[in-house]
Amino acid sequence: MTITKKKFPFHIGMRTLKTALAVGLSLLTGYAIKSEYPPFLAIGALGAMESSITASFRGARNLTVGNFIGALLAIAFTVVFSGHLAIGCAIGVVIMIVACNMLHIPASTTNLACVVFCCCLTDMLSTSNPMYGLLRFRDTVIGTAIALAVNMLIRPYSGAAHTKDSIIKAQKAMLPLLEQRVLRGRIPDLRDLRAHINDLDRNVSILLDERMNKSLKKSEVAHLRGCQQLLWKMRDALIGICCIDTMPSPSAENLARIEALGLTREEGKTETILDGVCAPEDSVVLNYYLKMFLDSNEYLTMMLEL
Questions:
Q1: Is the same domain home to 126 and 189?
Q2: Closest to 74 in 3D by CA, of 150, 140, 169
Q3: Separation between Cα atoms, residue 251 and residue 25, nearest integer Å
Q4: Domain residue limits at 38
Q5: Residue 22 shares a structural domain with residue 145
Q6: For the chain, is the Cβ count within 10 Å smaller at the N or the C terminus?
Q7: Residue 275: how many other CB atoms lie within 10 Å
Q8: Largest CA distance in the chain
Q9: Torsion over CA of 35, 37, 41 and 44, rounded to 10 degrees?
Q10: 153, 186, 211 — which closes off a domain?
């Protein structure tokens, strides 16, 4: 009897758990230091928790700069817009966004800094305490420090093995697509393949960007990038083959290489959707892309075995 594992519609990863832990610790720290508004520590933790240590430091730096600008701007606006909160917040947000854009701070961090600015301005106008903004800036800095500590000490992201598995999975997924197009005359849907390879690109980029995780070897990451580039070449060749609107036949050499991969043409099951007149140029283009695909597949297999 085959046991089928139940698939949940959601996934709770390590980053999610670490984010929750950082937020919880930040709130507890806020209560311990008797902060008037502990959620500001949580805002700092949320802004600094990223997929890698290097990205977390970058996020903490951007959030600290953005929140400092917001706190100072809120202090200044308590004098200028003392009786006009809505106007002050609107103008201040414009200034915040422009300033953060000039400093190349990402939009997500800019939004958090704008939240800090609006909250500081609202509370300072109601309490008449100009130090409120600096206290809230202090809280966000503590929250970012807690998030950095959590991300560094608890299973720092090292997705090399997962990325390699994803490359192998994408390589295997392309072979049936090639079989459908070249041997069965069908037009496969490549959207899932493109999305998967784009996710791989993001994962490898995260690994290449990591500078502070000593468990990641540069040679290993460079090897994964090389494998991913061969995967790109296979994808581009497959797209080129699928763009041919006729059914040219593969050369004897390419056909033998395809069959060596376990791909076969079933007699009587070839579709006739692409029934246009096949010009000699179509065969040249097909075999050019087919050779590119097969060569890249062989090189990728060799590299994955290293």
A1: no
A2: 140
A3: 64
A4: 14-153
A5: yes
A6: N
A7: 11
A8: 84
A9: -140
A10: 153
Question: Does 183 lie in the same domain as 115?
Answer: no
- DSSP at 217: -
What six digits make up the tokens of 2? 């085959």
* Structural domain count, the chain: 2
Distance CA 120, CA 36 (A): 12
Distance of CA 97 to the CA centre of its chain: 24
Using an 8 Å Cβ cutoff, are 290 and 250 in contact?
yes
Q: Which residue has the tokens 């990038």?
A: 225
Closest CA to 73 of 92, 101, 99, 98: 92
DSSP for 175-198? HHHHHHHHHS------HHHHHHHH
CA dihedral 3, 17, 115, 76 (to 10 degrees): -170
Q: Both tokens of residue 7?
A: 């698939």
What is this structure's pTM? Answer: 0.70
